[in-house]
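2024-03-11 09:14:02 INFO worker-7 job=invfold-0412 stage=load source=structure_tokens
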């Protein structure tokens, strides 16, 4: 069970001394841990929630070059984001894939359609021609590309390419955490840092295991603050002064049943002029997002958010009957932390840069990571390596490549073994993807263990939870390797079951109770009751 791995790691956190302690297990902390551990640093990582359990599980699942920043003339940002997108896609070809965007330009829009098309050509150039070329789509041909689009106000369209994460964002984040642990990092979720003090060249982090209540200290030569939206609060608690700080952009997405069979992302400019997406996500569709400035990073979906998204979706798409709140399967809500300097950044909110920044306090051996996006996560890991090297921390395997899918020879071996046992013949007929591709994308070389389990017992290739594309062998391996501490960790972050399966469908499934037994053993009923209580409370607060 995952509890065994977690308990062992908590023992190690208090018994060992580390080179670096990372606070925060979102994308910034995850890539930092993976990079440092792979090159030989002794790394500790803790998060007061689950890994990827905050901002990093609330994204649009896009790894894009930032085409919208062309409008604010941020050409260097777009150039670098496109480079980062291409780099990510080359190294994670199974996960980060090209997808077409079909943008509809309505009458009265601030730019003529030809100007938008020219912008897409510039974007293609900045993307080093790594994707398919953009196309101008006349109003008459929009319906051929996508019958759902309302044409009464459409002037024309532009189709171009970008990239997206095939699985959910939190799964992508966790794979970096798992990689870090494979290289010797000691990580634990649901461990909060109460305070951190620097003395005589050592950071002492006073921590509490929020599951058991146990308190202990973690000692490390250096500290990395990768708390995402809470970087500023944690720095204040450590008496760490920085030039940068965060302001917050709230984003909301709604999950509904698939609105179109097209595998394109439909992009529009919402009623207030901001980009608005209709994104395929397996058997469902993700609609959003909002981009609203907020002061507090702890945000929830409000009634106005739902109305805004549903209104724009109904105005831009044709439905047999309009989408209503009854059609919402799940919601995603989080903030994007934007790195700024100075005191007042309220004048031009949408023009604020979406670049990241890392501040380095050499005297106190402290790093603070501000901002950050999934698209340029590899850059953050590499920059952290460069700064840590300046601290005098030995990286005995400097230059070792710490990211990317296993090599082509390993991939071919996996698919050959999968073919020999007839794995793809076991595919659920409702699934549009062969089992071999799905397992490789989610688990990489770790999927070999699943092939062995299926080889020994073909029932391991059966779906355990009704209406959810997760196999018995996946859930058993998750229980051993993925530190699933609460049921929500599995349903929402290691998998995307609670995003794409209506709650009433999986919550009463006998397979869910069986999955709890696999994941939690004797604590299965307790963990299920905990999940039901927390989600019932959340539903009550939303209503």
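2024-03-11 09:14:09 INFO worker-7 stage=emit residues=543
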């Amino acid at each position: 069970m995952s509890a065994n791995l977690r308990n062992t790691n908590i023992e190690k956190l208090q018994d060992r001394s580390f080179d670096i302690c990372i606070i925060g297990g979102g994308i910034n902390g995850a890539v930092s841990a993976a990079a440092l551990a792979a090159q030989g640093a002794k790394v500790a990582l803790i998060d007061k929630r689950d890994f990827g359990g905050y901002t990093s599980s609330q994204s649009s699942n896009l790894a894009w070059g930032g085409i919208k920043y062309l409008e604010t003339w941020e050409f260097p940002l777009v150039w670098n984001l496109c480079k980062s997108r291409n780099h990510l896609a080359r190294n994670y070809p199974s996960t980060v894939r090209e997808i077409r965007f079909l943008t509809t330009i309505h009458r009265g829009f601030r730019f003529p359609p030809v100007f938008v098309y020219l912008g897409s050509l510039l974007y293609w150039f900045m993307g080093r021609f790594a994707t398919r070329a953009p196309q101008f789509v006349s109003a008459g041909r929009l319906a051929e590309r996508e019958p759902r689009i309302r044409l009464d106000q459409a002037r024309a369209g532009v189709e171009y390419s970008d990239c997206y994460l095939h699985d959910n964002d939190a799964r992508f984040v966790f794979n970096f955490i798992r990689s870090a642990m494979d290289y010797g990092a000691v990580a634990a979720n649901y461990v909060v840092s109460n305070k951190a003090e620097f003395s005589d060249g050592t950071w002492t982090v006073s921590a509490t295991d929020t599951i058991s209540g146990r308190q202990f200290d973690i000692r490390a030569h250096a500290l990395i603050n990768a708390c995402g939206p809470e970087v500023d609060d944690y720095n204040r608690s450590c008496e760490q002064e920085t030039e940068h700080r965060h302001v917050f952009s709230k984003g909301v997405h709604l999950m509904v049943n698939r609105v179109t069979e097209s595998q394109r992302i439909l992009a529009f400019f919402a009623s207030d002029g901001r980009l608005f997406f209709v994104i395929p996500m397996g058997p469902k569709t993700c609609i959003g997002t909002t981009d609203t400035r907020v002061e507090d990073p702890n945000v929830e979906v409000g009634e106005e958010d739902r109305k805004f998204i549903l209104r724009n979706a109904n105005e831009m798409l044709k439905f047999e009957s309009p989408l209503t709140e009854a059609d919402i399967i799940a919601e995603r809500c989080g903030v994007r932390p934007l790195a700024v300097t100075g005191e007042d950044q309220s004048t031009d909110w949408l023009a604020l840069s979406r670049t990241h920044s890392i501040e380095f306090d050499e005297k106190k051996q402290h790093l603070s990571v501000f901002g950050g996006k999934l698209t340029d996560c590899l850059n953050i890991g590499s920059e952290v390596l460069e700064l840590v090297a300046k601290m005098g921390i030995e990286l005995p395997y400097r230059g070792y490549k710490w990211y990317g899918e296993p090599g082509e020879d390993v991939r071919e071996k996996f698919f050959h073994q999968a073919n020999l046992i007839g794995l793809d013949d076991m595919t659920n007929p409702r699934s549009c993807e062969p089992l071999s591709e799905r397992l490789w994308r989610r688990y990489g070389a770790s999927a070999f263990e699943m092939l062995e389990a299926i080889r020994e017992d073909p029932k391991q290739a059966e779906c355990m939870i009704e209406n959810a594309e997760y196999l018995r062998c996946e859930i058993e391996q998750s229980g051993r390797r993925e530190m699933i501490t609460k049921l929500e960790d599995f349903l929402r972050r290691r998998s995307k079951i609670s995003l794409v399966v209506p709650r009433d469908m999986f919550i009463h499934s006998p397979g869910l109770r069986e999955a709890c037994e696999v994941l939690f053993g004797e604590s299965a009923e307790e963990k299920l009751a905990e999940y039901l209580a927390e989600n019932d409370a959340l539903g009550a607060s939303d209503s």
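2024-03-11 09:14:09 INFO worker-7 stage=report msg="The longest strand covers residues 244-257."
2024-03-11 09:14:10 INFO worker-7 job finished
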